[in-house]
Specification:
Layout: E1 3-12, H1 16-30, E2 36-42, H2 47-53, H3 59-66, E3 70-75, H4 90-100, E4 105-111, H5 124-127, E5 131-137, E6 145-152, E7 158-163, H6 168-184, E8 188-193, H7 199-211, E9 219-224, H8 225-234, E10 241-244, H9 246-259, E11 267-271, E12 277-281, H10 298-311, H11 315-330, E13 333-334, E14 344-345, H12 348-359
Parallel strand pairs: 1-2, 1-3, 3-12, 5-10, 8-9, 8-10, 13-14
Antiparallel strand pairs: 4-5, 4-11, 6-7, 11-12
Helix pairs in contact: 1-10, 1-12, 6-7, 8-9, 10-11, 11-12
Bound molecules: 3-isopropylmalic acid and magnesium ion.
Amino acid sequence: MATTYRIAVLAGDGIGPEITAVALDVLQAIAPRFDLEFDFLPALVGGSAIDAVGEPLPAATLTTCRQSDAVLLAAIGGTQWDTLPRHLRPETGLLALRAGLGLFANLRPAKIFPQLVHASSLKPEVIAGVDLMVVRELTGGIYFGQPRGIFTTETGEQRGVNTMAYTASEIDRIGRVAFETARQRRRQLCSVDKANVLEVSQLWRDRLSALSTEYPDVELTHLYVDNAAMQLVRAPKQFDTIVTSNLFGDILSDIAAMLTGSIGMLPSASLGESGPGLFEPVHGSAPDIAGQDKANPLAMVLSAAMMLRYGLNQPAAAQAIEEAITAVLDQGYRTADLMAEGCKLVGCREMGDLLIRQLSQ
Ligand code: IPM
Ligand code: MG
């Protein structure tokens, strides 16, 4: 009997719906081969939810997600919603979803496809062979710390405030995920902080060092975030697994993304203690190309593969999808963001059709 999974599908804004359509078709295409069945449960999030029901994370969406086996999310946001009050912005919906599902661990792999070495803005010899994983804390730190807001001081001046805070237990639980992740990889963990200036980082560093005694097989190193940013573009191959806080991870994962040629190639997994994980591309909603069939659907398809691997424990199905992507890139097909001389330019839909053709061979 086939295994049936309930997948909450949050297509979101901008290019979200078009890349989602491709990912769902790819999942349907591999389902029979691995004896899987998918129940896709569409739900609203972000700007499209604001337009439809007046809020970026409707309660019904959170309920659908909680009742699912995994959540697949494309992208949210767009300039038309940027001037709304903060609690009504698309990004607030995404953060509430992460918090609501308790998704404290965000895994962002950056692995270069050899076919795309020339698509990066960095020299091929610097990036060929890059294979790293950013483990980003996702439900704490300055994104969620209190107090926050724009206040008025006694002298009548405005003052903007955010708070970067971590408890020891928040650091320990992301630390454990990172050590376990490194264990499955090359057993090198680099913790990134700003302990030369910030107390919150000092605690981070102390806890990571203490934890490392439980993982003697993993080599732990520490870098300050400014140096880590520099090292990522100078010599990225030195990194295996990176663990860092919410804000630093946001920034470093965009840098890591660019090492792979295009942010259009990077998936991510957000996991909690239990319950469904959330799988989404690292890139945004790209409103400038939305609806034009120009978007690269591969990060979204790779997110579906991550969902199979980390969320549903179906590694063979995940691998089949990843191999199909490699094959289609080998055949020279590229979306506009990856286009290079001698390659064949395809749109979002056609890239999806090529993957499906590859998978049905
Ligand atoms: C990301 C994004 C989000 C973040 C935004 C859209 C809130 O940049 O997933 O990296 O900052 O976490
Ligand atoms: Mg980001």
